[in-house]
Specification:
The complex is a heterodimer of chains A (190) and B (606).
Chain A: E1 3-10, H1 15-28, E2 33-37, E3 47-54, E4 68-73, H2 76-81, E5 86-95, H3 102-106, H4 113-123, E6 126-130, H5 132-139, H6 145-156, H7 163-173, H8 179-187
Parallel strand pairs in A: 1-4, 4-5, 5-6
Antiparallel strand pairs in A: 1-3, 2-3
Chain B: E1 2-7, H1 8-18, E2 23-26, H2 34-42, E3 48-51, H3 55-67, E4 72-77, H4 78-83, H5 85-94, E5 100-105, H6 119-126, E6 130-131, H7 136-153, E7 157-159, H8 163-166, E8 168-174, H9 192-195, H10 199-222, E9 227-229, E10 240-244, H11 248-259, E11 263-266, H12 275-282, E12 287-291, H13 297-309, E13 314-316, H14 331-341, H15 369-380, E14 386-389, H16 414-425, E15 430-436, H17 437-453, E16 458-464, H18 493-500, E17 504-508, H19 513-524, E18 529-535, E19 548-550, H20 560-565, E20 570-573, E21 576-579, H21 589-593, E22 599-601
Parallel strand pairs in B: 2-3, 2-4, 4-5, 5-7, 6-7, 10-11, 10-12, 12-13, 14-15, 15-16, 16-18, 17-18
Antiparallel strand pairs in B: 1-8, 9-11, 19-22, 20-21
Helix pairs in contact in B: 1-2, 1-7, 3-5, 10-12, 11-14, 12-13, 15-19, 16-17
Classes of the chains: A alpha/beta (190), B alpha/beta (606).
Chain lengths: 190, 606
């Protein structure tokens, strides 16, 4: 099984942890993984992405345009930004909630989540939009968007992994006191 | 051996431990930081590890260890190599006894750096051999080989990953601790003819270094790290080849899967250059494309060899416009360049442009005390002729609108020099230098001594958040803990400044906005060099227990909170300010400036 996955969002949203969880889950199934992370200045509210490749015969951890099986968008505009990487038949799982750059709060830049989601739905056949406000409210923590999106990605089938694989990864990588919350987020669906 | 999923930097650390490294030191800097952090986490009790105060000191500490026959690793980013260049240039002339590996991570893009300098070029300038890994697995093997080369040829050796190698993850096979080499330390042996640098010694050693590097060209030509792939295949018609190294090797290999085989030279030792191997590669080729980032190092070497050996091969790359002169390459850019070079159809770009997307410059975190510090100085100095000299760290982000409080930023510590200089020339300008706590110890002290002695006049603002925040919270002399796990006496910034002779030294919590503004007003107009220490911990380390709430009934929609401080947790919806509870850290700066008293909660800083 070869899979190319792009996780993208805004620094601070938890893309790096989500990428580590997928990698750990794949490794536990003895699937080779290569990945590349954004670490550094962009983690302070800039655009961030992870490239994650699973399978045999890989040289580079980086994904080329038109090669991604799945884009996991933590923010609608960031998913649009990286859409050229998606395969024609690829899947997009995206959070409905826009993160406004500070510049947009200062003067209206016209940036709207709805426009981004409309653009995505006009171009992506296999699109899953996660209502982030509702999901976070129902799960009961503002910090678990990453696990909620991972859960939606599992159910889309595009990850090629089961929820139980990711729960095992949570057990390996996350302190025990957060397990229950993270499992609830993974299992959440509207 | 066992398999582990590791970041490139972790692989380097594990490789160094496997090689029996005795001492590891460095200064944090993206993308190099995780090497030393991993050593600290995974070391045996006999390995000494420290974050040194800066790269120059780190290089000297590593050099001392190598004098004593120890294996030493010193880590830094490419900017740090500039700071460490004085001891390194001399160390190359003196030589080492124990292996000394200098880990310098380069940053094409640049993604988190001031320059796009190339440590491969620094290697030929300093005459220090350099290994250039393409992956975590290779970096793991190369760091071990670097120790061997260093000891055998008694020279420091560079290991130079780039960001994508340092921050790429892969599953690699690594040694168990029981399999680690044990490297006993002989101890320093006095020999002034060897360890004391004098012109006569340098003259003699210079000749030996040049001879050794010529010898290393041959040694590296036979080392399988450098290779031609495939050895035989030459295409009919125009005979073409591609030369590459480092992470770009993975781009070329992926492109070859799509475009078909092309003779490839992989250069893992850009200096000393594997000359014999490269000549064998060039002979029989009509054209070679050099695929690399930063400087055209391989390209220049091949052009030189064509001249030296009278070869007719045409060398293409950065200098001919076939590869971009600056910035990062990518899978797509390399595939396109290679396809064009091989006269194959170049993959088309995306046909349509996406809708306009937000620009996301990095910003200070919600609740970051630096925001409050900048805002206090801004308010206190409103209407005055000022200059705000910034520095390197999270607080460089004070440049963003609406704070707009960084007029200059050059390199670590430079703000102090620029601020005092401008005051010498413009007496009516109120000059400020902002420096973080880690940068204060790393690079600001000579600037303060200089200012006090030379009768300069400026205000030094120390933004003390009790950590090295931008690189991921490393300890420094002001934090009171070491990488060996000891709790130690902190070096007091106040005492250091007073000891140098700064007469006015004020310390204030920047999140108490009124007091902070008063302190700046009172201090800035004093004569000479004065200092204000804004002390408040990094929000990423000490999460607040409570967040602010904005009462929509009371909010008058004036947008002052948004317009003045640019906090990413604040936005404006339906005519009212809204605080995002996922981001808010309860610093209360917005509450303190709200004219309607609509914002409550958070932690009090009265």
């Amino acid at each position: 099984m070869n899979k190319n996955i792009i996780l993208c969002g805004v620094g601070g949203q938890g893309t790096v942890l989500a990428s580590r969880l997928i990698s750990s889950a794949a490794m536990a199934r003895h699937i080779p993984v290569l990945s590349a992370e954004t670490i550094g200045m962009a983690q302070r509210g800039g655009s961030v992405f992870s490239h994650l490749r699973m399978g045999e015969d890989l040289c580079s951890p980086m994904i080329a345009r038109g090669e991604a099986d799945l884009i996991l968008g933590f923010e609608p505009g960031e998913a649009v930004r990286l859409l050229p990487f998606l395969k024609p038949e690829g899947q997009v799982v995206v959070s409905s909630r826009a993160v406004m750059p500070v510049t947009a709060a200062l003067s209206d830049t016209g940036y709207r989540a709805e426009d981004m989601l409309a653009y995505l739905s006009s171009r992506v056949e296999h699109l899953t939009v996660v209502d982030a406000e509702k999901a976070l409210q129902e799960v009961g923590s503002p910090k678990v968007l990453n696990l909620i999106l991972l859960g939606a990605a599992v159910r889309s089938g595009a990850l090629g992994l089961e929820a139980e694989d990711l729960k095992d990864a949570v057990r390996r990588l996350i302190p025990e006191k957060f397990h229950e919350l993270n499992f609830r987020a993974l299992d959440y669906h509207a | 051996m066992h398999d582990e999923f590791v970041m490139g930097n972790e692989a380097i650390a594990l490789g160094a431990l496997a090689a029996g490294v005795n001492l590891v030191c460095g200064y944090p800097g993206t993308p190099s930081t995780e090497v030393l952090e991993t050593v600290a986490k995974r070391r045996g009790e006999n390995v000494y590890v420290e974050w040194s105060v800066n790269e120059k000191v780190a290089m000297e500490i590593a050099g001392g260890a190598a004098y004593a026959g120890a294996r030493a690793l010193v880590t830094m980013k490419q900017m740090g190599l500039n700071v460490a260049s004085d001891p390194l240039m001399c160390l190359e002339y003196i030589g080492v006894k124990g292996g000394l590996v200098v880990l310098v991570a380069d940053d094409p893009g640049p993604i988190s750096s001031q320059t796009e300098q190339d440590t491969r070029s620094f290697a030929s300038f300093s005459k220090v051999p350099v290994l250039d890994p393409s992956s975590a697995a290779e970096a793991y093997a190369m760091v071990q080989e670097a120790f061997e080369i260093s000891e055998k040829y008694q020279t420091p050796v560079f290991l130079r990953p780039t960001t994508r190698v340092s921050h790429g993850y892969a599953s690699i096979s690594v040694k168990d601790p029981e399999e680690y080499t044990v490297h006993p330390v002989e101890g320093f042996v006095k020999d002034s003819s060897r360890w004391v640098i004098f012109p006569r010694l340098s003259f003699g050693n210079h000749r030996k270094i040049e001879e050794r590097n010529e010898q290393l060209q041959d040694v590296f030509s036979d080392n399988p790290l450098n290779r031609i792939e495939p050895e035989e295949a030459l295409l009919s018609g125009l005979r073409r080849g591609v030369a590459t190294g480092g992470f770009n090797y993975t781009y070329v290999m992926e492109a070859r899967k799509k475009l078909g085989a092309i003779r490839t030279l992989k250069v893992s030792t850009p200096f000393p250059f594997p000359e014999k191997l490269a000549v064998r590669f060039l002979e029989g080729l009509d054209e070679v494309l050099c695929v690399e980032e930063l400087d055209p190092v391989i390209e220049r070497e091949l052009i030189y060899l064509c001249g030296k050996y009278g070869l007719q091969t045409k060398i293409l790359g950065k200098m001919t416009g076939h590869i971009p002169r600056s910035g990062e390459n990518s899978r797509d850019s390399v595939t396109a360049a290679l396809a064009g070079f091989m006269n194959l159809p170049v993959p088309a770009e995306t046909p349509e442009a996406p809708p306009p997307l937000p620009v996301r410059p990095p910003v200070l975190c919600a609740g970051c005390p630096h925001r409050a510090s900048f805002y206090a100085v801004k308010q206190a100095m409103k209407g005055r002729k000022t200059v705000f000299c910034g520095d390197i760290g999270c607080y460089t982000l004070g440049n963003a609108m609406p704070l707009d409080m960084v007029d200059t930023c050059l390199c670590m510590g430079a703000g102090l020099g620029i601020a005092q200089s401008l005051n010498h020339l413009e007496k009516d300008r109120s000059c400020f230098a902002f420096v973080g706590d880690s940068t204060f110890f790393a690079s600001a002290l000579p600037g303060v001594v200089n200012a006090v002695y030379n009768q300069a006049e400026f205000t030094l603002i120390v933004l003390d958040n009790s950590t090295t925040a931008m690189t991921g919270h490393q300890p420094h002399p002001g934090t009171g803990r070491t990488m060996m796990g000891e709790v130690v006496e902190k070096v007091s910034i106040e005492n250091v400044l007073k000891g140098i002779g700064v007469t006015a030294v004020e310390t204030v919590d920047p999140l108490n906005h009124k007091l902070a503004v008063e302190t700046v007003r009172k201090t800035a107009d004093l004569p000479g060099v004065k200092a204000i220490i804004f002390r408040s911990p990094c929000v990423a380390l000490f999460r607040a227990s409570s967040r602010v709430t904005i009462d929509p009934e009371k909010c008058i929609g004036c947008k002052k909170c948004i317009r003045e401080i640019g906090c990413p947790a604040l936005s404006f919806r339906g005519g009212k300010a809204v605080a995002d509870i996922a981001q808010c850290n309860g610093c209360t700066l917005c509450a303190q400036l709200c004219p309607a008293g609509a914002i409550t909660g958070g932690e009090s800083h009265e």
